[in-house]
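Hey, can you fold this one?
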Amino acid sequence: MTTYTTRMLILGSGPAGLSAAIYGARAGMKPILVQGIQPGGQLMTTTDVENYPGFADVIQGPWLMEQMQKQAEHVGTQLMYDTVVEVDLTQRPFRLIGDGGDVYEGDVLVIATGAQAKWLGLDSEDALKGKGVSACATCDGFFYRGKKVAVIGGGNTAVEEALYLTNHSPDVTLIHRRDSLRAERILQERLFAHKGVTVLWNKEVDQFVDGGGTAGLVAIDLIDTVTGEKSRLDTEGGFVAIGHHPATELFRGHLKLDEDHYIWTETGSTRTNVPGVFACGDVMDKVYRQAVTAAGTGCMAALDAERFLAEMEFELAEAAE
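Sure. Predicted structure:
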C-alpha cells in the first residue's frame, strides 16, 4: 500500500477533471488525478465530435481526450490508473482509497466523476450506438439534418430533445410507453403545439433495425403496451432520452446530493457543502451535459480550490502571529 499526498486531488478524467488538472497544475498545486473506472470519460465512446471549439474539422472523442491528458501531464499533473472504492471527507487532508489499497490524500478535492446515460438495454441498441442510435440530441442532432428522427422517453429530457431536434429535422417522432408525459406542463404545451412533432403513445421499443453495411439505423420496431400489436417506424436517427445516472454512489452520506442524486453545489460556483470539496462536470450539471461546459466547470473548480487554499493559508498565518 502506498500513500500519495498532494495539495489538489482530482477524481475523474473526463473534460472536467482534466481541465481542473491543467489549471491546478499551472497554479503550482501539483495535482494528482485518479482516473477511475472509465479513463477519459464519456468522450472515449464518442466518435465524431463537431461542436468542441477550436477544431474546424470533425475530430474523434478519444483523440480529444488523449490530447487533454497529454496537456495535463505536460504541465505537471500526476495521473493515477486506479478506481476509488472508499472516501473520507470528515477531515483534511481528504482521503480516497483505491481498490488495490493505495491511499490518496489532498488538501482539496475536486470531484469530476461524471454521469452515464440510461439505455434501454437492447442488443440492437448497443450494436447501433454511433450508427443512428444516440443518447444526446444536442451532441449528435446536427448529423441528422433533413432526416427523419425519433426520441424515446416521456420526461423533460425527452421533450426538450424532441423540440431541439426540430431545428434540424422536419419529422420528429416522440415514442412513449404510456398515454401521458411526465414532462413539465409548459414543455408539453410547446411540444403539442409544434407541427413538426408526432407523439406515439403506449409504444415500447422492441428493437432498432440495422439496414446493413454502412446504412446504420433504418427503422425502429415497436410493441403497443396496451394491445401487444407490433409496428415499424422508419427512421434514420433514434435518440434514447430516459435520463442519466450521476456517478455519486461513493459520496452518498458524505456530501449533499439533490433529488436526482447529482452533487449539490452553491449557485454560481463549484463549492459543495463540505469546505474544500468541489464538484464539476456532469456529476453536478444535469442541464447542459456538454464537453465544453464540463471543461468550463473544471476550470471553475480549480480556481475555487486555489482561492480556498489561499484563504486557509492566510488564516493560518494570521493565527500564528
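The first strand starts at residue 3 and ends at 11. Let me know if you want another pass with a different chain boundary.
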